[in-house]
Amino acid sequence: MGHKPYTYYEENHHTPVLLRESSEIMSYLWGVDSSTNVTQDLYNCVLNNYGKPEYWGRYLTTVPNAAEGLTQEEIGLLHNSGTKVPTIHPV
After folding, report:
1. Environment class of 56 (CB within 10 Å of its CB; exposed 0-12, middle 13-18, buried 19+)
2. Is position 51 within any domain?
3. pLDDT tens digits, residue range 2-45?
4. Could you give the number of structural domains in the chain?
5. How is the chain classified by DSSP, letter by letter?
6. Could you tell me the end-to-end alpha-carbon distance of the chain, in angstroms, rounded to an integer?
7. Residue 89 contacts by C-beta under 8 Å, 6 or more apart in sequence?
8. Domain of 49?
């Protein structure tokens, strides 16, 4: 029995994007991104309400009126919790 590829539509786009062409079950990585600095209180709030994030995306630099830039304190807090930190690069 054949399986059709999974597809999804990117926001504001009409072109389908092939996700996987397999009968295997897809796995997910759960994570968070935020425009504000990550504090212990914010991390604990996410942990207690949603579970442990595998990653926490953060803006690399400050974007005026939009996002606070990543700090050394955040890097330490997230790495000590075993959470990866992908950076978001403003355009």
Report:
1. buried
2. yes
3. 444 444 444 444 444 444 555 566 677 889 999 999 999 999 99
4. 1
5. ---PPEEEE-TT--SEEEEE-SSSPP----EEEESS---HHHHHHHHHHH---SEEEEESS-BTTTBPPP-HHHHHHHHHTT-B--EE---
6. 45
7. 60
8. 28-88
Largest CA distance in the chain: 53
Would you give the distance in Å from CA 49 to the centre of its chain?
Answer: 16
Report if residue 6 sits inside a domain.
no
Which two structure tokens, joined as six digits, stand for 9? 């539509």
Residue 3 lies in a domain: no
Answer whether residue 42 is part of any domain: yes
Tokens (6 digits) for 78: 């997230």
